[in-house]
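Q: My labmate handed me this sequence with no annotations at all. I'd like to see what the chain might look like in three dimensions before we decide whether it's worth expressing. Could you predict it?
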Amino acid sequence: IGCGEGNIAQHLIRKGCIVDGVDIIAPSEVTATMHKYHQINLVTELDKLGELLKHNSYDYILLADVLEHMLEPEKLLDFIRTHHPARPRPTVIASTGNVALFIIRTMLLLGQFNYGARGILDRNHTRLFTKQSFQHIFEQCGFMVDDISGVSLPLSAVFGENSVIGLKLEVATDFLARNWPSAIAYQLIISAKPLPTTNQLLEVSQDHSEELRSQEHDIVEADDESVDESIESQIVH
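A: Here is what I predict for the chain of 237 residues:
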């Protein structure tokens, strides 16, 4: 969801994944050879996304740097939880910038909180998250969080890929980001599963009851056949 031109999708396709994409851009702008692409405005056309989720069963749903661009990301998470079939439950993987990064904390101490063209304080970001608030929004929307981890600053892009200093600093910050993501991680990555709603639990219970009834009927028929065979055998003798 929010696949853009399909850069991440293309990497997944190379690994053998079957990928459907959702975004607002025109199909002609999508470069990845996806299984299907759906042009959907996540603000005004959530009902279309709901229909898509109802009629498909996905193993994973990827929200890469999507939630921070939405005024009400809770609505999107609610839609995923309530519209995707209860069985099997998909794993939702989402990423966002960490507004509690130590650099931004230092800027706040100096009285600076300046938005820019890119990065955590991208001027197009309408919601900002810390590690705790990112986890909280998923739990609040009825998800069970399996894991939340941190990604370090892309220092090799700053110093150059062949810079020894940049590579050493990136290894160090990557270690710190994994062990102290709340302050050192540049980005946060969460893995969560939607808990079933009351209606979904009732549907699953009804399906299970019908399966049990069908099995009992098969057992009764099998028993009747065995009784008939036994009677026939006795008559013959």
